[in-house]
Amino acid sequence: MRRSQMLSRLGAWLRREPDDVSIMLPFDEVVAALGRTGERRLGLQVISLDSIVGSVDRTRDFDRRFRPTSARARGRWERLALAQRRGEAFPPIEVYRVGDMHFVIDGHHRVSVAHAMNLRTIDAYVTEIVTRLSAGGIHHRGDLTVKDYRRLFLERVPLTGSARAAIRLTDAWEYSELSEAVEAWGFRLMQDEHTFLDRATVASRWYAEEFVPVVTMVRQAGMINTQTEAEAYLWVIAERYRLIRAHRWDDEVITAIREQPRLPRRMGL
């Protein structure tokens, strides 16, 4: 298992893969990014070994496939492996469940030996963690940054339902930029209407009165290619202000944007 871990690490370096591809996911960082709201004990269950992707406190001792990263645990590992070969049953491990992922509380060596024996499942006492955001889309440690910024965005712009699902960005920092844009739009709206609106109302009206109409115009103009609708929206509002110096939307604005060379959005800013 140690040799396999070292060869895997070398192979990842030769393929120039990101450093976090083989790193175990840290439970605390995942929960912090998603926003913890509660937990419930589910009791003893049979779980897939492939669903175990992280640890509560042993992220440096094993890699993503629970191969030991050092020889410190060799004695304990070998004793467990020998017991397994003799047909002795493993006691259940303890895990947290976040989405469809599992994080080991107790039983790291048992998981490692089970992988070495090519087992597919393992018994575990499961505690499910309930979070504000879905854990879907988390594969590597770098994905946590996007989740964390999305969670902060939704606290500032509390969209719900289909509107919430529609806003998707691949660059984590763009969630911050979009929240600033929504808040600025809400401020202008309150000035125009001479009234105070709470965040939920601003978010709902921005989506219905600004985002949807703008995205519809941009799509009809053939200006959405590989990016998401939210990424296209961010690009056109930056280009609109750079070219027109106004916050209005009409055919003139769309025409002016279409005639410009398509530069990276940050250069446009």
UniProtKB/TrEMBL annotation:
InterPro entries: ParB/Sulfiredoxin_sf (IPR036086). SUPFAM superfamilies: ParB/Sulfiredoxin. It comes from the Bacteria. This is Chromosome partitioning protein ParB. It comes from Actinokineospora guangxiensis. The lineage of its organism: Bacteria, Bacillati, Actinomycetota, Actinomycetes, Pseudonocardiales.
